[in-house]
Design a protein that fits this description.
Length: about 190
């Protein structure tokens, strides 16, 4: 993919020089760089805010309670190859963090969950059904609070940055259900 992007950038620069618009391209690159840097700083601020909220939720054991409820639900998704209690706990914490829109905290639990699932993997070269199911859960997670998208919409002066929330719920549920169905079908076909 990086080769494709590099090729497109080089071709764009050559075309800009050939058409005599290199000054315009240069100014656009500079303006975009400044805008991108500002956006990163704003996103870091929002990430810090939501990470702080998450730490408060973690200290008051709300995340653990959500995780306990999720463990009961997730246990049914992994009924063919039951993962260890530690793996299931990390999976549920990962899903809970993703649901609350704190992806940076979810990463830690996701890595721990994958480590635990790898310990249970007998072949070591191939991903197990549980690993595939967890990757779908992690990638197509349901987001109750899509913090990054709300922040981006607010940065670009959306009149109502939160109006996308119901749509995100619908899309994330549909994506998760479709992903899990595909994963279960492919796990059976490949086996």
């Amino acid at each position: 993919m990086s080769k494709i992007w590099s090729f497109m950038i080089v071709i764009s620069i050559i075309v800009a020089i050939a058409c005599g618009t290199s000054e315009t391209i240069t100014s656009i690159i500079m303006e975009s760089s400044i805008e991108a840097t500002g956006n990163v700083i704003k996103l870091i601020g929002m990430t810090c805010f939501w990470s702080g909220i998450f730490n408060v939720l973690e200290k008051t054991s709300i995340i653990q309670k959500i995780s306990t409820v999720l463990t009961k639900i997730l246990h049914k998704l992994f009924k063919n190859e039951k993962p260890s209690k530690e793996a299931l706990n990390n999976i549920s914490l990962n899903v809970a963090c993703d649901m609350l829109g704190v992806g940076n905290a979810a990463t830690v639990y996701g890595l721990k969950a994958m480590e635990e699932l790898q310990k249970e993997n007998t072949t070591k070269e191939k991903a197990t059904d549980n690993m595939a199911t967890f990757m779908v859960l992690n990638s197509a997670s349901i987001q109750i609070i899509p913090t990054s998208m709300i922040t981006l919409r607010a940065m670009y002066n959306s009149k109502n940055p939160v109006e996308i929330v119901p749509y995100v719920w619908v899309v994330s549920v549909v994506a998760l259900v479709a992903g899990l169905i595909a994963c279960k079908i492919l796990n059976r076909v490949i086996r």
